[in-house]
Amino acid sequence: MHDLIALVDAHLAAARVAPHGRSAHLVVHDGALRQSVIALAAGAELDEHNTPPAATLQVVRGRVRLTAGGGGEELRAGQLCVIPKERHGLLALEDAAVLLTAVTAVA
C-alpha cells in the first residue's frame, strides 16, 4: 500500500528545489498499467509528448493546465480527466501534484 499524500508532499518539496521544477515517482508498475505521481513547482512544465494508448490525469494538489491541439484545459485538485489521444503537455499554474494513470499496451 502507498501513502499518496505522503508521496505528493515529498515530491512537491523535491520539485520546489529541483532546477527543472519537477519530481516524479512510479508508484505502480503492473503489466501494462503504470501510475506515477508527478509534482511540479509553479510555472514548471512537461513539454509536449505523445500519449499512451489510454491515460487519465487526477490532480491531487494545486492547479495545472493540460495543453493539447493548440488549446488547454485547467484542472484543479480533485478533478480527473482523460488525457486526449494527441500530443499534449502539462503546465503547473501553482505548485501542483498529479496522479498519472496510463495503460502502455492494449491486449
Strands of the largest sheet, in order across it?
1-2-9-4-7
Query: In total, how many beta strands?
Result: 9
Report the β-strand fraction as a percent range.
over 45%
Unreliably modeled segments:
none
Main sheet summary: 5 strands, antiparallel
N- to C-terminal distance = 27 Å
How would you describe the oligomerization state of the chains in this entry?
single chain
Helix amount, in percent? 10-25%
Structural class: mainly beta
Approximate shape: globular
Q: Tally the helices: what do you get?
A: 1
* SSE ordering: HEEEEEEEEE
Mean pLDDT: 93
Tell me the Rg in angstroms: 13 Å
Annotate the secondary structure layout.
Elements: H1 4-17, E1 22-30, E2 33-40, E3 45-49, E4 54-61, E5 63-68, E6 71-76, E7 80-82, E8 88-92, E9 96-103
Antiparallel strand pairs: 1-2, 2-9, 3-8, 4-7, 4-9, 5-6, 5-8
Describe the structure.
The mean pLDDT is 93. The chain is 13% helix and 54% strand. A five-stranded antiparallel beta sheet has the order 1-2-9-4-7. It has a four-stranded antiparallel beta sheet with strand order 3-8-5-6, with no helix packed on it. A hairpin with a 2-residue loop joins β5 (63-68) and β6. The chain contains one helix and nine strands. With 107 residues, the chain is mainly beta. The chain is globular.
Quick recap:
By secondary structure, the protein is mainly beta.
Task: Spell out the key features of this protein.
13% helix, 1 helix, 107 residues, mainly beta, single chain, five-stranded antiparallel sheet
